[in-house]
Amino acid sequence: MGGEMIAPEDAEGDDVVLAWEGRDVVAVRLPHLSDSLDHILAELERRHGMPLCELDRKTKQSVVRILETRGAFSVRHGVETVASALGVSRFTVYNYINAQEEKRAKKRRDEG
To answer: Could you tell me if 85 and 41 are in contact, meaning their C-beta atoms sit under 8 angstroms apart?
Structure first.
């Protein structure tokens, strides 16, 4: 996610201070969401061993599913950022998202 470890005494308002046996040992400064998206995309590229734009359609759909569960599309310009990384249009990303929604809705209907 791109967080930064800092000394507990340097922690500020939004930093997360972690304690061990009642003693503050480290603080984590979380990045802005937009920076986190860049880190997540870079990690997905490492995981797949190639630029995301070179993945096949099915794998790109899987990447969009992962990004959706991690909240990537709640970030301003998230769809545009992901579309650019995948080498597809925004419309295609929305289609992938909608296809997942339809699958989830069908599963709910079938279970109910």
So the answer is: yes
Q: In what order do the strands lie in the sheet with 23-29?
A: 4-6, 23-29, 16-20
Phi-psi region of 18 (alpha: psi -120 to 50; beta: other; left: phi over 0): beta
**Per-residue confidence (pLDDT) for residue 30, from 0 to 100:** 72
Token pair for 31: 């990045």
| 88-92 CB contacts, 8 Å cutoff, 24+ apart | 88/60
- d(C-alpha 21, C-alpha 66), whole Å: 35
CA atoms of 47 and 36, how far apart (whole Å)? 16
How far apart CA 69 and CA 80 sit, in angstroms, is 17
Half-sphere exposure of 5 (CA within 13 A, CB side): 4
Is the pLDDT confidence value at 112 over 80? no
Please, which residues have CB within 8 angstroms of residue 35's CB and are 6 or more apart in sequence? 2
User: In this predicted model, which residue has the larger pLDDT, 74 or 22?
Assistant: 22
pLDDT of residue 35: 67
